[in-house]
Amino acid sequence: MPGLIEPYDDLIGAVQQIILSSSDTDYLDQLIPLLKNAKTQSHVQPLVQALNQISTEREAEIERICNNNHQEFISSVSQLQSVREGTVTLTSEILELSRSIEATTEKLAEQKKALVDSRSVRQNIDDTTQALKDCLEVLRLANQVHDLLGKKSHYAALRALDELQNVHLREVTRYRIADMIERSVPATQHLIAEAVKTDLNTWLYRIRETSQFLGEVAFYHTEMRRTRQKERWAAEQDSFLAASKLNSAIELVADEQEEFDVLNNEEVQVDFSPLFECLHIHEALGQMDAFRAEYATTRRRQKELLVPSSLTLDDDDLAGLSSLLEGIAGFAIVEQATMHKTPENFRTRADVDELWDSMVQSAITLISAALPSVTNDEKLLKVKGVIALFVQTMDSWSYSVSALDSLLLTIFSKYSDLLKTRYSDDFAEIIAGDDYMPMPITNAEEFAKVLSVSWYTPPPELQDPVYPCILPFSQMYPMICIDIRNFLNQIYLFSDDHFSHTAVIDSTLRTALDDLLVTKVANSLSSRLSSQYPGQIVQILTNLEHFETACNELESLLVSARSSASAAGPITLSATAAFRQTSKQAEIRIFELVNSKIDDLIETAEYDWLSTYIPDIASPYMSELTRYLGNIMSSVLIGLPETLKEQMYVASLAHVSSALLSLPLDPGVTTISSQAVTAYALDVAHLVNFVTSLDDDAALADLEELRQTTALMQLAAQGKGDEFFDSSVSGIKFGTVDKLKGAELLEKVKIGPGSRPALASLNTLGSGGSGASGGRESPTVFGGGAGKFTTGLGERFGKFAGRDRS
C-alpha cells in the first residue's frame, strides 16, 4: 500500500491504480487508506481534484470511444452516470469520514500525549524497580558469601564473591552500595583465606596425629606382601622367583592383583579435599607463592614435632622405635601423595626429599645413640627387623634408603660382635666343662642326634652300632658343632627380609668363625696340652682332628651358602691350619709325656756295672717299662688312628732304645763286668721279645742298633771283640753300631772268666719266645671299668642336647 502521497501526480497515479482494482474488496482496501492519508496529511482537496481529473479523463475517453461506437458509448454514458453518482456519493462519504477522522485524531493525540506521560512515569518506576532488584541481588550475593563461609564452603564462597565483584557489581556501579561492597571485597577475601587456612591447619593436625597409624597400616601391608612372597616361593619352587626381592619388578608384577591403597582403606582414609580447596582458593587469590612457603614451613615444624628428643631400646616390644619409624613413614607417605596430587610446583621432589633426609638422619642419630644400651643379640635382631620393615615400606614409595642401609651395616657389626661374644663364652664353657673322654652313646636316638649336628662320618664298625657304644671324640665336639651351626644360622638370619650388604655378611661370618675357632677352640685346647695326663692329651688330639675335618666341611658349606653372587673361588679358614698345627703340638706333647715316663722308668735302672752276679730274669724296671708300653698301646693310644698310633709307638721304642744305649756309654761308667753285660743283655732280650710279640716289624727295626750293640758287648765279654774291627764280619753283625761308641764299649767291657752259651747268641734275640709280655696283665680300657666310664652318661648327653638351639 502506498505511503504518504504528497505530490499531486502521485494522487492521480494512486486513484488510477484504485480504479483498475480487480474486485470491490481490493477497491475499498486501497481507497480507504488513501482517504485516511489525505485527511491526515491535509490532502483532501488535492484528492478531490485528482478524482475530478480522472473523471474528466474518463469522460473524454468515453466520448472518444462513443464516437467510434455509439451504442457502446450510450451504454458507457449510462455507466459513467452511475459512476459519477457513486463518485459524488463517495465524495460525500469521504468528506464525512475525513471530518470524523479529524475529530478522532485530535482525541487520539490527547490520549497519546497522556500515554507518553504515563510511559515516562512507568519507565522511571521500572528503572527504580530494576535498580532495587539489582541492589538486592548484590546484597543477597554478599550475604550468600558469608553464609557459605559459615557452612565452610570456602571455594563456593570465593566463586560467589568473584561473581559478585566481576558481574553483579558492574550492573550497579552508579549506586553508592556498589562502592561500599567493592571496598569490602578484599576484607571478605581475607576472611575466606583465613577460614580455609584454619580448616587446613585442622587437617594438618589430624594428619600429624594419624601419621603413626598410617605408618602402622603401611608396615602391615608390607608384612603381608612379605608373607605372600614367601608363599609364592614355597608353592612354585621357582629359583628365579625366589631370587627376586621385595619391591623388585618381579615381585610387584606377581603381587599386582592384591590391590591396597594405604591412604584409603578400611582402617584409614586420608581426604585431601581441605588441601585442594586451600590450593584453589589461594590460586584464585593470586597468593600461591605465599601459601606454598607457609605450607612448607608448617610441614617442617610438624616434622620437628614428630621426632622425639631421645629414644630408648630397652623395652621388650621396641614400642618407642616402632612409633618413631611408623610416624616418619606416615608423614613421608602423606608428603609423597601430596606431591603427586597437587600441581608440580607446589611440593617439589627437592622439598619432599629434604624433609625425608632430615627425618632419616634424626632417626639414625637417635637409634645410634640408643644402640650401646642393647647388649642382647636377639633384641638387636628385633631392632634390625623393625628398621628393615621400615626400609622396605619406604622403598616401595620411591624414597632413598641408602642412609638406612648404612645404619643396618652398623647394627650388623654390633650384632656380629654380640654373637661372637656370646658364642665365645659358650665355647669357653664347653671346653672348660668337658670331661676329655670319648663320648658314650646309649641309644639310637642319641646317635642320630650326634650325626645330625656333627661333621662326622662313622667308620664301618659304627654304621650299625650296638648300644651302648663309644664315639672317638668327647662331648665338646658335637656341642661346639651345634654352636657353630647356630652361629651360622643367626648370622644369616640377619640377612632375612632386607640387607643389601651380603658380601659383608660372608666376610664377617668367615672372619668371626675363624676367630672363634682359633682363639676359643684351637688356642684353648693348645693351652690344655700342658696337662700331665697322656689320656687327656690323646683325647684333645682326637678332638682336634675332628675339628680339622669340621673346618674342611665348613669351608664347603660357606661357599655354598655364600650370599654374594659376585663372590667366587674357594673359602679357606685359617682355623683349619690352626687345628692342624695344634694337632702337631698335641702329638709332640704325647711324645714328650710318653718319653718322660720312659725316662723316669729307665732312670730307676740300677745297673751295677762291676757286678759279679748273673740274674735269671729281667730287671724290675724293664718289666715295668714293657708293661707301660703295653698299656699305652691298649688304652691311652687306642683312640688314635692306627697310623698315628704306630708312629708314636715306634718313636717311643726308638727313645727306649736310645735311652738304653746311653746307659753303658755314660761317662761315669768306666768298666763293665761280664756279669753286668749279661744282666744288661737279659733286659734287652726281654724288651726285644716284647716288641716281637707285637708283630710290628718297623718297631723291631728300631731296636736293631740296641740288639747289635748288646751282642757286641757280649762278644767283648767273651774276648771276641776283635770281630768288630773285622770289616768282613762287622758289616754283617754290627752294621748299625756306631764305630766310636762300639770302640768305647769294647774298652769298658772286661773279659769274663767264662761264658754262658745261652747269652752268647744275642744275634738271635727277637726270633721267638714269649718274653716278659707273656705274663702281663690284660690292659684296661681308659684306666677303669666300663661301668665307671659310662657313669653319668645320660647327664653328659643331656648337657650336649641342651646346646642345640637351632
TrEMBL record:
Domain Exocyst complex component EXOC6/Sec15 N-terminal, chain residue ranges per copy: 51-219
GO biological process, one term: Golgi to plasma membrane transport
UniProt-listed InterPro entries: EXOC6/Sec15 (IPR007225), EXOC6/Sec15_C (IPR046361), EXOC6/Sec15_C_dom1 (IPR042045), EXOC6_Sec15_N (IPR048359), EXOC6PINT-1/Sec15/Tip20_C_dom2 (IPR042044)
Residue ranges occupied by any Exocyst complex subunit EXOC6/Sec15 C-terminal domain in the UniProt entry: 404-748
Biased composition (Basic and acidic residues): 796-806
GO cellular component, one term: membrane
UniProt keyword terms in alphabetical order: Coiled coil, Exocytosis, Transport
Signal peptide segment: none
Region (Disordered): 767-806
PANTHER family from the UniProt entry: EXOCYST COMPLEX COMPONENT 6, SEC15
Family: Belongs to the SEC15 family.
Role of this protein: Component of the exocyst complex involved in the docking of exocytic vesicles with fusion sites on the plasma membrane.
Annotated protein name in UniProt: Exocyst complex component SEC15
